[in-house]
Amino acid sequence: MYFAADDGFRGDELWATDGMPTGSGANTFQVFDINPGPAPSHPVYMCDVDGTLFFSADDGQHGAELWVSQGNATTTRLVLDIQAGPAGSSPSHIVSYNGLA
To answer: Contact 46/36 with Cβ under 8 angstroms?
Structure first.
C-alpha cells in the first residue's frame, strides 16, 4: 500500500507499507525523496496498475507531473514533463482502464 507522509525532515513524500503493526515484521518505508530536502513533493492521485504505481508529484523543478514507481528508489521516475518548466501540468484523477493507467 502506498501513501504520502511527512516525517518532519523531508516534507510530504511517497511511502509504502505492508500494513503490519510495529514489532511484527512491519515494512514501512519512504520509497523515494522526490523533492530532496525539506520541501514536499505532494504525491497525490495514486493509481496502482498491476504493481506499478502512477501518481502526480512535484520534484521542485518540473512542477506537478506524472510519475511512476514499482516501490523503490530505482524505479521511481518522472514519466514526462508534460508542461515544460516549473509550472507543471498537474495531472489528476488518474485511473486504470483495461490494465492501463
So the answer is: no
Question: What integer pLDDT is reported at residue 32 of this predicted model?
Answer: 96
pTM of the model as a whole: 0.89
Rounded to whole angstroms, how far apart are CA atoms 70 and 76? 7
Q: What is the mean pLDDT of the chain?
A: 92
Residues in the chain: 101
47 CB-side CA count, 13 A? 17
Q: Which amino acid is it at 39?
A: A
HEC per residue, the chain = CEEEEECCCCCEEEEEECCCCCCCCCCEEEEECCCCCCCCCCCEEEEEECCEEEEEEECCCCCEEEEEECCCHHHCEEEECCCCCCCECCCCCCCCECCEC
